[in-house]
Amino acid sequence: MIDPISIANQNSAPVPEANPRVPVKMLGQDEFLKLLVTQMQNQDPLAPMQDTEFIAQMAQFTSLEQSRQMSDDMSVMRKEQGMQHAVGLLGQHVTVAFGEGERMSGTVREVQKENGEPKIVINGRSFDLQDVIHVSATDGDKKTETQ
After folding, report:
1. Is 117 inside a domain boundary?
2. Most exposed: 45, 82, 95, 118, by fewest CB within 10 Å?
3. What sign does the CA torsion over 97, 99, 100, 106 have?
């Protein structure tokens, strides 16, 4: 008697390794409109697209576009808020942590923008705001500690 499992194993070819997935570009407004026009041109004449389906697709696209715009606006606001925070540190004595546990303290004398991100300058070196671990307000010769 022939065993179907052994026959299947004899005829099976090795499965090729899957290709790594290539990131797919997100659909933009132009691609969406092209897709919609193609869908309308190739619809079944006996069962055309309902106007409610068309309106729902347009509403979804509008919502998606507004969400994308809001995300872009929030990113700009975050960068501007970071710049305002950096400017607020001008004249303040700060301590930054960087590298492998290194620390540096000094008075912030300058604020720069590198690649759209604010940087504070201490003793001639620029640091990200996230590197700040301690701030002390200087009032003449007195320092008021804050963390």
Report:
1. yes
2. 45
3. negative
Q: Backbone phi, then psi, for 108, in 5-degree steps? A: -75, 115
Quote the domain boundaries for residue 128.
91-146
Domain total in the chain:
1
Query: Which tens digits make up the pLDDT trace of 10-28?
Result: 555 555 555 556 555 666 6
In a domain, 114, yes or no: yes
Question: Model confidence over 38-64: pLDDT tens digits?
Answer: 887 888 888 777 778 878 888 888 888
Q: Would 75 be classed as within a structural domain?
A: no
What would the DSSP string read from start to end of 19-37? PPPPPPPPP-HHHHHHHHH
